[in-house]
Amino acid sequence: MTQPHDPVPPKRRLTPAYLLFHVLLSVDTWRIVFGTTMAVVLAPHLLPLDRTGIGRYVMFITVVVIGWAISKAPAEWLVRQLRHRFPDK
Questions:
Q1: Alpha carbons 38 and 89: distance in angstroms, whole number
Q2: CA 36 to CA 47: how far, in whole Å?
Q3: Is the Cβ–Cβ distance between 86 and 25 less than 8 Å?
Q4: Residue 67: how many CB atoms within 10 A of its CB?
Q5: Residue 61 and residue 71: Cα distance in Å, rounded?
Q6: Based on the number of CB atoms within 10 Å of its own CB, is 24 exposed (0-12), middle (13-18) or buried (19 or more)?
Q7: 87 Cβ contact list (under 8 Å, min separation 6)
């Protein structure tokens, strides 16, 4: 538990490398990548091009959300592997 007289730990500077590793080592980043990739591949096959534009957008977003939901375990595994490769200093 921290006390009022405890020194404040120094904050990390926001460098481009720090931001890059933060994004790469985030589970949500990889879940979004998996969902978007699934949508790009599957959405055109799920809804033919003769539908309205809004229907295609809704289908794309739906597939992104479903892909995000089902990719929790693979994304966590990938982040674990990346953290072993790039240990925190």
A1: 34
A2: 16
A3: yes
A4: 21
A5: 15
A6: middle
A7: none
Interval 2-44: pLDDT, tens: 567 777 767 777 888 888 888 888 999 999 999 999 998 988 7
Whole-model pTM: value is 0.72
Decide if 34 contacts 75 (C-beta within 8 A). Answer: yes
Which two structure tokens, joined as six digits, stand for 25?
A: 């080592």
Residue 41 tokens read as: 């591949």
Scan for tokens 């091009």, then name that residue: 49
List phi, psi (to 5°) of 7: -70, 145
The residue to which tokens 């730990």 are assigned: 9
